[in-house]
Amino acid sequence: MSRHTLVIVCIWVALASVVYYLVDRIQQPNTLQALGHDHTVVLKRGLDGHYRAEALINGEQVDVLVDTGATGVAISQTVADKLQLKSLTAVRTNTANGTTVGYMVRLSSVKLGGVEANNVSAMIAPGLEGDVLLGMSFLARMDVRLFKGEMTIRQVE
């Protein structure tokens, strides 16, 4: 490979890396670093219309979908395994996809930026696609407002 070809390849790799980084920031603007540590968090709505963010559950980083229409916190089996969550209590629950069985657990802490709740009720949902659905068992403890593509969550406890 000639020196000229190597330089061109390096330039293309650098440009591809920059484009990847920018697209990733557009699709996932609510990273742990971007959310900061204040007791008020402002989430930007994603291109798909949902509010996704990085959060800490029991101190471990996970991706969450913030859903004010969900009754509780639902955790995929993959994330439950990562967090080493165990439950002996099975419950039947109704979801948008029909009736299913989930497993009740308690989360020591759920933290979204500087907004935190302790002892949060959650359910391991083995059929859940994605990581974590962050619903009202967390959000009901906060002041939540939606306005012009932003969700503002303020700590009130």
Euclidean distance between termini CA atoms: 63 Å
Structural class by sheet pairing and helices: alpha+beta
User: Helix-strand pattern, N to C?
Assistant: HHEEEEHEEEEHEE
What is the gyration radius calculated from CA atoms? 19 Å
Q: Characterize the main sheet.
A: 6 strands, mixed, barrel
Mean pLDDT comes to: 87
In the predicted model, the low-confidence regions spanning at least 5 consecutive residues are: none
Strand content: 35-45%
Total strand count, please? Answer: 10
Shape: globular
Number of discrete helical segments: 4
Strand order in space, largest sheet: 2-3-8-4-7-6
The helicity comes to 10-25%
Layout of strands and helices, then pairs:
Elements: H1 3-27, H2 32-35, E1 40-44, E2 51-57, E3 60-66, E4 73-75, H3 77-82, E5 90-95, E6 98-112, E7 115-124, E8 132-134, H4 136-139, E9 142-147, E10 150-155
Parallel strand pairs: 3-8, 4-7
Antiparallel strand pairs: 1-10, 2-3, 2-6, 4-8, 5-6, 6-7, 9-10
